[in-house]
Design goal:
Belongs to the carbohydrate kinase PfkB family. Ribokinase subfamily. It holds the Pfam family PfkB. This is Ribokinase. This protein is α/β, with parallel strands linked by helices and 343 residues long. The protein has a single domain, classed as 3-Layer(aba) Sandwich (UDP-N-acetylmuramoyl-L-alanine:D-glutamate ligase). The protein has 10 helices and 15 strands. The strands form 3 sheets. It has a 9-stranded mixed beta sheet, with helices on both faces. Strand 6, helix 2 and strand 7 form a beta-alpha-beta unit. Helix 9 packs antiparallel against helix 10. The protein starts with a strand and ends in a 16-residue tail after the last helix. Bound molecules: alpha-D-ribofuranose (RIB). Alpha-D-ribofuranose binds next to strand 2, helix 1, strand 9 and helix 9.
């Protein structure tokens, strides 16, 4: 059987994280507890989650994981933090382009200790936008890493330009393409995602906030009087199955757990794992998505028809929940994602 292959096309950021007992009010100056500079970006975090999910033991990796993205040239943070963390997690960085025209993306993150490690994030895209706006070049880099004769998984988020994302979705959702698209609309583009772009997506993974914003895509199919913000997952998921042929819908519900639904009728909820103390929720969603995508890629590599994944989806969601629970107990983004052999 060919090894599972996963290609993450997305962002790489340097995270400047301030830990504070509480957030300052407008006009207020507050003394915070600590500042940390760490590797992040939703794309790179998810690539690391896929890489780490594929190490059942420290010396054996069962999936091939590649990162496609862009950073600023000669960036010491990329050289000292991002690249070593990616590579040390079994992720190929051959598809990461170093650009002389822009800086590496950055994120300013405030982690509020009194609010169970809840975060607020401000992102400056930098090279994640300027280096990812030429779709043909991005596709060429992807095709060099994803073997077209094998079925693989492509993972996309919302931190590269929307136009690029839409073109990539069209390409990878085309039935002629052997790749399966896992799309995590995080963050949701302000202009949303048109319903036709979602057509044929294998996995749509959202948190509660993203799920509400993504109802824009299916707004034409809401019943009169139905309020998008009040839809429960059992009402929302079928809209994506029926009107956009999305095969799997996942909705993470924070500390409660995660909901799953497939177009072939398997639905359920997997509660999150118990956590002693939440210190930082950054990258918990990325950990969930990366772990789930890896389980899905293992299934895809078997060549079995998609409906057969119904038998495996619940255990894949439970495992992704466990990994996310491991992540929230450590500080930082990428560095807090557990290896499979640790959970
Ligand atoms: O999902 C967490 C990530 O969001 C952070 O690492 C930060 O870079 C932002 O992109």
């Amino acid at each position: 059987m060919p090894p599972p292959q996963i290609c993450v096309i997305g962002s790489l950021n340097i995270d400047f994280v301030t830990y504070t007992p509480r957030c300052p009010a407008a006009g207020e100056t507050l003394t915070a507890a600590a500042l940390a500079i760490s590797a992040g970006g939703k794309g790179a975090n998810q690539a690391v989650a896929c890489g780490r999910a594929s190490f059942a033991a420290p010396d054996s990796q069962d999936a091939s994981v590649a990162m496609i993205g862009a950073v600023g040239a000669d960036d010491p943070y990329y050289a000292a933090l991002l690249r070593p963390t990616l590579e040390g997690s079994g992720v190929s960085t051959r598809g990461v382009q170093e650009r002389t025209d822009s800086q590496t993306g950055s994120a300013t993150i405030i982690v509020e200790e009194a609010a169970r490690g809840e975060n607020r994030i401000l992102v400056v895209p930098g090279a994640n936008h300027t280096g990812m706006d030429q779709v043909d070049a991005v596709l060429a880099r992807t095709q060099g890493l994803l073997h077209s004769h094998l079925e693989g998984v492509v993972l996309l988020q919302g931190e590269i330009p929307r136009a690029t994302t839409l073109r990539l979705m069209k390409h990878f959702n085309d039935p002629a393409c052997r790749a399966h698209l896992v799309f995590n609309p995080a963050p949701v583009f302000p202009e949303g995602i048109p319903l036709p772009a979602l057509a044929g997506t294998s996995v749509l993974a959202m948190n509660e906030t993203e799920a509400v914003l993504m109802t824009h895509s299916v707004a034409d199919h809401l019943r009169p009087g139905q309020n998008a913000a009040e839809l429960d997952p059992d009402e929302l998921a079928p809209l994506f199955h029926h009107h956009a042929q999305v095969h799997i819908v996942l909705i993470t519900l924070g500390a409660k757990g995660a909901y799953f639904s497939t177009a072939t009728g398997k639905r359920g909820f997997a509660p999150s794992a118990a956590v002693e103390k939440v210190v930082d929720t950054t990258a918990a969603g990325d950990t969930f998505v990366g772990y789930f995508a890896t389980a899905f890629a293992r299934f895809v590599a078997t060549g079995a028809p998609l409906p057969e994944f119904d038998a495996h989806i619940e255990s894949a969601v439970r495992r992704a929940n466990l990994a996310a629970a491991g992540c929230v107990q450590r500080k930082g983004a990428m560095q807090s994602i557990p290896f499979a052999y640790e959970i």
